[in-house]
Design a protein that fits this description.
288 residues; eight-stranded antiparallel sheet; mainly beta; disordered N terminus; nine-stranded mixed sheet
């Protein structure tokens, strides 16, 4: 997944949820909107139906190589400004080894090959790719018709699968800073090895003994969950603080609501929405 480093900005966001049970999950989805009419002419998804929250189709893991090309974690980069590169090195991810020229050549060949496929065959190929999780040196990448995601050492890159002039693919990078129970920190962000749950279509990070940070990779949206396995000291308000970098205009400071939108040219292009918490009894608690 490639994104343009121009205009990246970093800021922190807070998500506060009142959790009443011992074992708790809080989640929200990340969704890339359809391509604006002014974007490139590549076919884009429209009117996709959201997958139900029943039994998901498991992901198939494809191992590409043992080579690892991990980028600096955003929290480390924030402390070391000289390592935040404005050129190609900083925007090149572990799955972006091809040059733009070579990638364009290969894409042209693929399109010519696709033209020779029988009717309906392409849809089946794309559907299979949406159930594939690629692994390279212990890092992971996922692509669907709607978006692409790279799950690195304790942080996530998310981008819509289309490109705009000047900014490239609309997207954001997300890194957990901390999870608090009241005023007490029960989990901290930072570098962490990604782990997989193919049957749940997810990649997750262990955040100490109390919290798991999980990303479920659905074709139409990526769902983020914080699974709180224990609440030291008893129930209370949980606050998740995270660092986001984006090439879009972020929401105004202090924005509250059912969704948070990142915009360009006055249009919502990526949203973080549907924040929900579940307590130990499975009761659904709205909150954000």
């Amino acid at each position: 997944m490639k994104s343009n480093a121009v205009g990246l900005r970093g800021f922190s966001i807070l998500i506060a949820v009142l959790l009443l049970g011992l074992l708790t999950t809080a989640w929200f989805s990340w969704r890339g909107h359809d391509t604006p009419s002014s974007a490139s002419g590549s076919p884009q998804p429209t009117g996709q139906q959201k997958e139900t929250h029943g039994v998901p189709t498991p992901l198939v893991l494809t191992k590409l190589s043992e080579e690892r090309a991990a980028r600096l974690h955003p929290l480390q980069a924030a402390k070391e400004p000289t390592t935040v590169v404005d050129g190609a090195e900083s925007s090149t991810g572990p799955f972006d080894a091809l040059s733009d020229e070579l990638e364009a050549t290969l894409r042209e060949r693929e399109l010519k090959a696709f033209e020779k496929l029988p009717a309906g065959a392409l849809e089946g190929i794309v559907a299979d790719l949406e159930n594939e999780l690629r692994e390279k040196g212990g890092l992971y990448a996922y692509n669907s018709r709607a978006y692409g995601a790279t799950l690195e050492m304790g942080w996530v890159d998310f981008a819509a699968n289309y490109s705009l002039k000047k900014i490239g693919s609309p997207g954001l990078s997300y890194a957990l800073e901390s999870v608090k129970l009241g005023n007490r920190v029960i989990a901290e962000g930072g570098p962490a090895e990604p782990q997989t749950r193919a049957e749940r279509r997810s990649v997750w990070y262990a955040r100490g003994a109390s919290v798991e940070e999980e990303y479920t990779l659905r074709p139409e949206a990526m769902e983020q969950s914080f699974i709180v396995k224990e609440l030291p000291g008893g129930p209370g308000a949980i606050t998740v603080t995270s660092r986001v970098s984006t090439n879009l205009a972020p929401p105004a400071e202090g924005t509250k609501g059912a969704s948070i939108a990142f915009t360009h040219g006055g249009k919502d292009l990526v949203t973080m929405s549907e924040a929900v918490a579940f307590d130990a009894a499975g009761r659904r608690l709205a909150g954000c």
